[in-house]
Amino acid sequence: MAFLKEKDIKSGVEANMVRRFYRTRHRRIHGKDVNGDIVYQMFLRAFHSEYELIQEALGSGKIDSSLAEKLQQRISIDEMTYLQNTEIFSN
Questions:
Q1: Contact of 19 with 4, CB cutoff 8 Å
Q2: Out of 23-27, 43-47, 54-58, 81-85, which region has the weakest mean confidence (pLDDT)?
Q3: What is the phi/psi pair of residue 72, to 5°?
Q4: What is the C-alpha to C-alpha distance for residues 14 and 8, in angstroms, rounded to an integer?
Q5: CA nearest 50: which of 78, 87, 81, 84?
Q6: CB–CB of 90/29 below 8 Å?
Q7: 58 in the same domain as 16
Q8: Are 50 and 83 in a shared domain?
Q9: Which pLDDT score, from 0 to 100, does residue 59 have?
Q10: Distance, CA of 62 to CA of 90 (rounded, Å)
Q11: Pairwise CA distance, residues 37 & 19, whole Å
Q12: At what angle do helices 2-11 and 13-29 cross, to 10 degrees?
């Protein structure tokens, strides 16, 4: 959030939109009525579905291996970020 606040000065609307998205998502995920185990399972399923989608697109020739690799790296980064934030917020 500190990074986005710094970028808010330069990027204005875009940085503010990202900050709002993260705040909303954090509130939804960490609300009183939310079961953390279910949220965790849903995120893992979502990441798995993204990997499968890339594999299908690669297999059908809709994307090449270079793009598939970049997309898979992006998903891996998103997954690691989610897992790191899960640990931070559960403490």
A1: yes
A2: 23-27
A3: -65, -40
A4: 8
A5: 78
A6: no
A7: no
A8: yes
A9: 96
A10: 40
A11: 25
A12: 150
Helix, strand, or coil (residue 35): coil
Give the mean pLDDT of the chain: 79
DSSP 68: H
Question: What confidence category does residue 56 fall into, taking pLDDT thresholds of 50, 70 and 90?
Answer: very high
- Whether residues 46 and 84 share a domain: the answer is yes
Task: Dig out the tokens for 70 from the structure.
Answer: 């970049």
Q: How confident is the model at residue 91 (pLDDT cuts 50, 70, 90)?
A: very low
- Band of residue 83 on the pLDDT scale cut at 50, 70, 90: confident
Number of structural domains (the chain) is 2
Output the pTM of the full model. 0.59
